[in-house]
Amino acid sequence: MSSLVAKAREALNSVYDPELDEPITDLGFVHSIEQAGDELIVHLRLPSSFCSPNFAYLMASDAKDVLAELAPRVTVVLDDHHDSDLINRGLAADAGYRGTFGDEADTSLDELRLTFRRKAHAAAMERALTPFAREGAELHGLVLGDLPDTPATHALLRRREALGFGTGPAEPVLVDDRGHPYPREEIPLRLRFARSIRISIEGNAHFCRGLLRTRYDMKEQAS
Description:
The protein has about 220 residues and is mostly helical. The chain has helices at about 5-10, 25, 55-65, 85-90, 95-100, 110-135, 150-165, 185-220, and strands at about 30-35, 40-45, 75-80. It comes from Amycolatopsis dongchuanensis.
C-alpha cells in the first residue's frame, strides 16, 4: 500500500454516514482506494442499491472533499446504486448537490447535513449521560467537565464541535438542537426522545453491516 493510499484511508475515517453516525471506513462502504499517477480513485459501495440518494451523495461528496487535500486529482465512484450514473456525473463535474439532482433536491446539502448532525448529537448526548442516569444522578446543571474521559464523551464533544456548540468544561451537557440548555422539567422527555434516536441509529448500523456483508459476499462467491 502506497503512503498516499494509506493517507487517503486515514482521511476517509472522518467521513461519516449521515444517518448511522459511523465512519464509512468502519461500515465497510469503502470498497477500494487506488493511486494512478497523481490521481486517487476511490470506489464506494452501499448495503442496498436503493439507499437514499441524498445520503449516498453526501458521503461521496464528503469523501471527495477530504481527499482533495491529498492529491491534485480525485475521482470518487459510487458503485451498484440505482442513481450511480447521476451521482457519479455530478461528482465528476463538481456540480454540487442541486446541480446534480436539479428539481429533486428539495433541500440544500447543508440543511441535510445539519439535520443529521443534530440527530447524531442527541444520540451522543444520551449515550454519554447513560451512566449518570443509571446511578440516579442529578442531570440538570451537569457540565462537560463532569463527564469522564471516555470514548462516549469524546464522541459528544465531536458532535458539539460540528454544530458549533461550546466544548469547554463549564458548558452544560444537556442542550437542545440549537445549543440552549434544557429546562429541568423537560429533561426526562428530552432524554427519552434522544434515547429513541440512539437506538434507531445503532439498530440501523447493525442492519446495514449485515446487509452489506450478505450483498457482496454473495457476489464474490458467484464470481
